[in-house]
Amino acid sequence: MRPGDRRGPQPGLPGNRGHGKEAGDLAGLSSAGDCPWSFLFTMAQRTGLEDPERYLFVDRAVIYNPATQADWTAKKLVWIPSERHGFEAASIKEERGDEVMVELAENGKKAMVNKDDIQKMNPPKFSKVEDMAELTCLNEASVLHNLKDRYYSGLIY
């Protein structure tokens, strides 16, 4: 087969009128305006793909864990500037005037940071929140962290 040669109709692919089912036919959609979610669920069931809700919603039961909230409160977590990562999570250990001693969450190293460079971290209940206007600490580090968490969790919409 050379480039430009046509194979026969492919059942189940759009554009194969009269040869198999169209994508809309597979989902049972009609021109009457069926719900688009039903299309996604039907396609997931018929093709054996995962539930699309996994990519649309966050499991809040994990985030509202009281132990996680208490741990966050005790540590005084903040964001500090980092050349490698933009911002890194740290906990405040000691304050000395305009300087603050912090311990990095990733590796436990201690560092002195100017008080003006520190940005407050949001409680865990705001993890992967869809509407970032709900964040209690609406700052650059929190917004970037939330976007990154949502992206890596497949919650990009």
TrEMBL record:
Cross-referenced Pfam families: Myosin_N
Myosin motor domain residues: 127-157
InterPro entries according to UniProt: Kinesin_motor_dom_sf, Myosin_head_motor_dom-like, Myosin_S1_N, P-loop_NTPase, SH3_Myosin
Keyword Cell wall biogenesis/degradation: no
Residue intervals of the Myosin N-terminal SH3-like domain: 73-123
Origin superkingdom: Eukaryota
SUPFAM superfamilies the record matches: P-loop containing nucleoside triphosphate hydrolases
Keyword field contains ATP-binding: yes
GO cellular component: myosin complex
Region listing for Disordered, in residue ranges: 1-27
UniProt GO MF annotations: actin filament binding; ATP binding; calmodulin binding; cytoskeletal motor activity
The entry's keywords: Actin-binding, ATP-binding, Calmodulin-binding, Coiled coil, Motor protein, Myosin, Nucleotide-binding
Family according to the record: Belongs to the TRAFAC class myosin-kinesin ATPase superfamily. Myosin family.
Protein name (database record): MYH10
Organism of derivation: Cervus elaphus hippelaphus
